[in-house]
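A reminder from the course coordinator: this example appears on the midterm review sheet, so study it carefully.

Given structure:
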């Protein structure tokens, strides 16, 4: 039986003869159901006319995304580190060429995901690399649509994955997280921010939202919590969820001034 994929958000569901009645991820107010209704595909069909595009973003850092655009259109990141590579965020598609290329770069030791919109086909990716753990914050456990033994629901504020650290920030989701990699950017550090801290098109600022498609902002308390989580970290680069959304230098200063700008805009 197929494991259906929601075409709007890219989330994969457990095996079933018929598509799910609805996608809870899309029905949540942070996402949306298209005017034409929910539609579905599966991995085999998706792979017929889509591929995974690689970009070398920096030393020890690759981005991966699906081409042409599918679902939300996020990029995942392969972070290379001596004690085991990490896949940050995930994609709905996985193919043999991608598995072989990752294995050629040292394989995968961990998959860590920033928030539910990017759970996608996380267990397919885990299975392709020997059933490695998929790290998801326990605060977002209710949003998992296809469960499995590989999923580790971590708790608390930090999760160490060798030299990289997952940091819970909250905001966009209760468990929304970022990945801090102090060894990237030639040792100046990098923050892989997903949607928790979203790099905006000018690539000099970031923003923070409860819902991006529905334009629901966060409040001052949530911004304060996010900043409290990332302020102690040393980082120069910020890699956001979408292609080209990268702040290559002075990323920490950009996050600070963006938070100030945001709070001023909501008149706090």
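Designed residues:
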């Amino acid at each position: 039986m197929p494991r259906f994929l929601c075409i709007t958000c890219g989330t994969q569901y457990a095996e079933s003869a018929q598509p799910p009645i609805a996608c809870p991820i899309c029905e949540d107010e942070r996402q949306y159901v298209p005017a034409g209704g929910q539609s579905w595909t599966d991995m085999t069909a998706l792979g017929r006319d889509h591929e995974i595009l690689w970009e070398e973003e920096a030393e020890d850092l690759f981005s991966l995304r699906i081409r042409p655009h599918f679902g939300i259109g996020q990029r995942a990141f392969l972070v290379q580190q001596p004690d085991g590579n990490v896949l940050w965020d995930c994609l709905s598609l996985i193919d043999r060429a991608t598995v072989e290329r990752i294995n050629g770069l040292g394989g995968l030791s961990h998959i860590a995901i920033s928030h539910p919109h990017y759970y996608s086909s996380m267990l397919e990716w885990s299975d392709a690399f020997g059933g490695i753990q998929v790290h998801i914050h326990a605060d977002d456990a209710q949003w998992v649509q296809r469960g499995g033994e590989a999923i580790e629901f971590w708790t608390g504020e930090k999760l160490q994955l060798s030299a990289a650290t997952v940091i819970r920030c909250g905001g966009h989701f209760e468990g929304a997280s970022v990945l801090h990699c102090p060894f990237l950017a030639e040792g100046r550090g990098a923050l892989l921010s997903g949607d928790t801290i979203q790099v905006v098109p000018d690539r000099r600022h970031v923003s923070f939202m409860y819902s991006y498609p529905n334009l629901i902002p966060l409040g001052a308390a949530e911004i304060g919590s996010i900043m409290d989580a990332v302020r102690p970290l040393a980082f120069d680069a910020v890699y956001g969820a979408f292609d080209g959304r990268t702040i290559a230098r002075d990323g920490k200063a950009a996050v600070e001034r963006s938070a100030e700008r945001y709070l001023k805009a909501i008149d706090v």
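The two ends are 53 Å apart (CA to CA). Residues 251-265 form the longest helix (15 residues).
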